[in-house]
Design brief:
By secondary structure, the chain is of the alpha+beta class. About 60% of the residues lie in helices and about 15% in strands. The protein has twelve helices and eight strands. It has a five-stranded antiparallel β-sheet with strand order 4-3-2-1-5. Strand 2 and strand 3 form a beta hairpin. Helix 2 packs antiparallel against helix 3. The radius of gyration is 39 Å and the shape is elongated.
Amino acid sequence: MLENLLNSLYTVFSNVIETIYDNIGTVIYILVLLLATTVIARFVNKRFINYSKRVEKNMKMDITRFTMLRHVTIGCIYLAGIILILYTIPSLRSLSSTLLLSAGVIGIVIGIAAQDTFGNIISGIALTFFQPLRVGDLVTTDNVYGEVTDVNLRQTTIKTPDNRLVIIPNSVLNKATVTNWTLNDRSVRWPVTVQISYESDVDLARKIMMEEARKNKYVMSSELVYRMHPEVSEDVRVRMTTLDSSGINMSLDFWVADRDDAYSAECAIREGIKKRFDTEPSVTIPYPHMMIIEDDTECMRRFKKPEKTNDNANNNSEPEKEKVKN
């Protein structure tokens, strides 16, 4: 059994070697085509990357369309190389012609079998030309925040602040709600909510919160805010938003030049406000507490000693009666 298997493998291997030897010119040609296709694709990819960086820097144009065009061009180069290889092999030449003639039927079959893939491609083209987001934009979608690093025919890549790469299919992204923080400009108004007790001095709390915001390095100056956003009446503001069960909620709003710095500014300002409140006896941060009021009669009923029942009294009197009879 083992000898037959070894003979079969030897026969197959010998036929392969013989076929390669007889068609050594074709094999070399195919290898050259593969190498040439790979080299050309990498060269074009590198040229596209360098050109897009130069255009973005000098002409201040976004590179999203250049990125999509780069992916499409490279895909066409590889497709052309595959077609040339198929036509090089004589046994596959007739098959290639048949496939081209029946491309309509094959397209329908492939379209049904790969609806998601074609949906991603169409969505990628739509994202590229309508541009709800671009490469380099800061976006939030489905609780994912980060910078768009790539948009290709299948997917969009978002890099989060903790250095994770989130891959989102284009068809999903095309249907989702996207918050683009940098479509027009990178500045953003950012809120910080702080709760104070009902006994606190509201005016003093407002003053402290505004002072801590204005001295933060990430918060934009009033001159810059009014120049970039003429419609804004206050660069920093504090408003009383809600009267909660535990205290008063005060909302601080300030402008940050870059969305990436907003969270750092929020943490630093909140810490500064807490330290300032600790030094002011008239401003305190409340602790959650609950007061329970109970009816006095209910308390008396709980602590009152239980009375003896009639059954217990009768049972205790029966032995006395029997003792008298005796």
